[in-house]
Design goal:
The protein is of the alpha/beta class. It is built from 8 helices and 12 strands. A 6-stranded mixed beta sheet has the order 6-9-10-3-11-12, with helices on both faces. A 4-stranded antiparallel beta sheet has the order 2-1-4-5, with helices on one face. The protein has a two-stranded antiparallel sheet with strand order 7-8.
Length: 256
């Protein structure tokens, strides 16, 4: 079984330590969630796993199936099957969504690359599933897209690229209820059709977790995972807030 493992991870930005010994194991077929208040280190964690050079790992390791990812650049980690959906997807002027997906698929699947006709047929099918108009494939990546369209664009990338481990950094950020349900449905469908994939959802709130029920929930506060448990922990956070965890009152591991 595939496993993405984070071991005693310490990460600094400049002279400031942001992550202070994070431990997490995500196996293929599992859905986990990391919840935490603003400034807890959630986005630093996701970007560090993906290999963002702005963040310096000062101690610990990130491994995939026992192989350290630390020496690998972002594109090399992507080719290993790791996918990060950003909280704020960036615009890429001059590169169409269709070209980006075709180029990425070609680089990752050089031996089993689909024909142009197969690619277009599949692309249209996946766009229909997430209610993204076909005209978007000829537009520059995320340029002029609304918040919901950017999130659906990333969901399309997920469906087309079929990664083994997916990190969704605040996938509900800036979305209305209908758009959030569409994104959640697409993630659920992916999990069902790719039962060996591991999925990590990073969020402030329980709302999207109601539609994507994680088996494990972790609370990240001040650079540390202070409590882990089942889905009941997400409901506890929604009900009581983060203050008890910030003040060191995490208590025992939640069940259920």
């Amino acid at each position: 079984m595939k496993e993405l493992k984070v071991i005693d991870l310490h990460v600094s930005v400049g002279e400031k330590e942001i992550l202070k010994g994070v431990e997490l194991s995500l196996k293929g077929g599992e859905i986990h969630a990391i919840m935490g208040p603003n400034g807890s280190g959630k986005s630093v964690f996701s970007n560090t796993v993906m290999g963002d050079p702005r963040y310096k790992v000062t101690r610990g390791d990130i491994s995939l199936d026992g192989e350290s990812l630390l020496p690998l650049k972002v594109d090399e980690r992507a080719r290993k099957g790791i996918f990060l959906a950003f909280q704020y997807p960036q615009e890429v002027p001059g590169v169409t969504l269709s070209t980006m997906l075709w180029t990425t698929l070609s680089a990752r699947q050089s031996k089993t690359r689909p024909t142009a006709a197969e690619f277009q047929k599949r692309l249209k099918r996946e766009m229909k599933n997430i209610k993204l108009d076909e005209s978007f494939v000829n537009r520059s990546v995320n340029e002029g897209f609304s918040g919901g369209e950017k999130k659906r664009s990333e969901t399309l990338q997920l469906a087309m690229l079929e990664p083994s481990f997916i990190i969704l950094d605040e996938p509900d950020s800036g979305l209305d209820v209908d758009a959030m349900k569409l994104v959640a449905a697409a993630v659920r469908k992916y999990a069902e059709s790719h039962p060996d994939a591991g999925i990590l959802i990073i969020t402030h709130y329980q709302r999207i977790l109601r539609y994507i029920r994680p088996q494990k929930v972790h609370v990240l506060v001040q650079g540390r995972i202070v409590k882990s448990g089942g889905y009941a922990l997400a409901k506890e956070v929604e009900c009581k807030g983060y203050e008890k965890f910030v003040n060191g009152g995490g208590g025992t591991v939640a069940k259920g």
